[in-house]
Amino acid sequence: MARDLPYSIQLHSARLFPPVTDHFPHLAALGYTNVEPTDMFYDAPSALRETLDESELTALSGHFPLHMLEGEPDVACRIADILGMRLLVCPFLPVEARPAVTDDWRRFGDRLATIARSLRSRGFEFAWHNRDYEFRPLRDGSMPIQHIAADPDVHLQVDVAWVALAGIDPQPWLEGYAGRIAAIHVQDIAPRGGRIEEDGWADVGSGIMPWPKLWKAAVAAGASLLIAEHDNPSDFDRFARRSIEAMRTFAEMSKPESSPAAG
Hints:
There is one protein chain. The protein is α/β, with parallel strands linked by helices. It is 38% helix and 14% strand. An eight-stranded parallel sheet has the order 2-1-10-7-6-5-4-3. A two-stranded antiparallel sheet has the order 8-9. Helix 9 crosses helix 10.
């Protein structure tokens, strides 16, 4: 790997084990240097920043709901500025709000482009985080993700496990959007029928996702953050520990081989 990236973790993964801030010293001791908060942590951003600083953790990116990014961009940017973020991510579109036809998805893509330009004018980068529905073909054969990312100002935070759950190989999409992938969610899927108590998710490196090659592809595509995530871990500390161990291995495997010394 040509550059060293921070070991990062999504705080959504710790939501069932409050108070989440109590985990910060342990995350730092494991070797994480960066976390990604969601809007459930933004009630007191200055207090959150102070707690992060105490454990020498950064929050370089964060998830923000669509209604805030569209209706209250100044509020979102104030939170991001306090926390030291450089990337604001819109993570989800509820089922009832999702477009049904191609033209509506195109209009939604235009809305995201407007958000992206607004945030860029304020000094921030914007990205869309996918689930599986963006990779399911519409009636005309196109995919929602193509309309979401139609404007080059809209970058992507690719959750490759959700892409795989849509029946799609993530690697060509990483390669196809190279230069526009701001971040990656490093999530793993248990073998079929496994980890039912965790909704079929797995600790990073213990599932079926081919992470060694995907990690390399993500870095090659320009991702500056690779963020461990588990949507429903039964033990957050276990997930955090196993995942950073795996991520260290992937990062080491992705480093370019040293050139032999000239003889």
